[in-house]
Amino acid sequence: MSDDCGAELFEASLMLLAGTSVLYRASTGRTVDPWAVVDAHAVTQLRVEFEAESSATWFADVMQAMPDARCSIRRRVAGIRRQYETFVVHVDGAEPSTVVGRLHSAWIQNLELLLGNGASDERALRARAAAVWRVAMLTAAPRVSSTGLQLRARDRSSARLLLRAAQLLGVTGQARTSRGFQVVRVEGRGVITLLSTVRSVPGPFRV
After folding, report:
1. Pick from 53, 77, 106: which residue ends a domain?
2. Does one domain contain both 12 and 62?
3. 19 Cβ contact list (under 8 Å, min separation 6)
4. Could you give the CA distance from residue 27 to residue 69 in angstroms, rounded to a whole number?
5. Calpha distance 66→36 (Å, rounded)
6. Which spans in the chain are helix H?
7. SS3 state at 88
8. What is the pLDDT of residues 163-180, one digit of tens each?
9. 29 pLDDT exceeds 50?
10. Which CATH number covers residue 52?
11. Total structural domains in the chain?
């Protein structure tokens, strides 16, 4: 597997977790181990749900690194009093357990690479750090203003990963707890640096 392919699978694993957490929060209002939720919902078919079409499209794009997997996107309208829409990516062509297993392995390996203290290739680290922030920009409700950029992280581990990825990109960030979420904030020129990591992503944050 090439390094670029490994980075894409890592990005796909992050998108999978982000989409699965949307699905779980919508039905229960709580959060749990995201990989446990993935396993529970991927028994016969793998479906990943996103709040924005751009997120679903990007997940389908990075999933091209997964052998035999084919993705299709369907729009879903839900709600009774107040309707809302989501975009569901159906992953076919490969066994759901195989897809989840490969993405889980990619997530573990690359997480160790990002958070470890050992010697690593700088290009590989920056590629994966950029992937972390691309996914966050697409899925974590980012808010950009004249004073900085902030977004929500699922938990402390996710916030720690975002801060570490920012550091690898030469940016300093801060995290705080607000209403059950970790809020990560970046100010100054670091905002421009992070926005540049999503230049190839469809959607409102393309620069």
Report:
1. 106
2. yes
3. 48, 49, 50, 55, 56, 59, 89, 139
4. 27
5. 21
6. 3-28, 34-41, 53-62, 96-115, 122-139, 156-168, 190-195
7. strand
8. 999 999 999 999 999 887
9. no
10. 3.10.28
11. 2
Q: How far apart are CA 127 and CA 175, in angstroms?
A: 22
Largest distance between two CA atoms of the chain: 55
Q: Using the 3D structure, point to which of 106, 132, 158 is the last residue of a domain.
A: 106
Question: In the 3-class helix/strand/coil scheme, how is 72-85 assigned residue by residue?
Answer: EEEEEEECCCCCEE
Contact by Cβ (8 Å): 149, 191: yes
Burial class (CB in 10 A: 0-12, 13-18, 19+), 178: exposed
Annotate 94-107 with b (16+ C-beta within 10 A) or e (fewer).
eebeebbebbbebb
Compute the average pLDDT of residues 9-24: 80
Residue 180: give the domain boundaries.
Answer: 121-198
Query: Residue 104: helix, strand or coil by DSSP?
Result: helix
89 & 11 share domain: yes
Task: Let me know whether 177 and 143 are in one domain.
Answer: yes
Phi/psi at 180 (5° precision)? 85, -5
Tokens of 94: 């490969």
pLDDT tens digits, residue range 99-117? 999 999 999 999 999 998 6
Given a contact cutoff of 8 angstroms between Cβ atoms, the answer to whether 86 and 73 are in contact is no
Here the tokens at position 69 are 């997997």
Tokens of 77: 């309208």
Question: Tokens representing 52?
Answer: 């924005």
Helix (H, G, I), strand (E, B) or coil at 46: strand
Phi (first) and psi of residue 2, to 5 degrees? -70, 165
Quick check: helix, strand or coil at residue 171?
Answer: coil
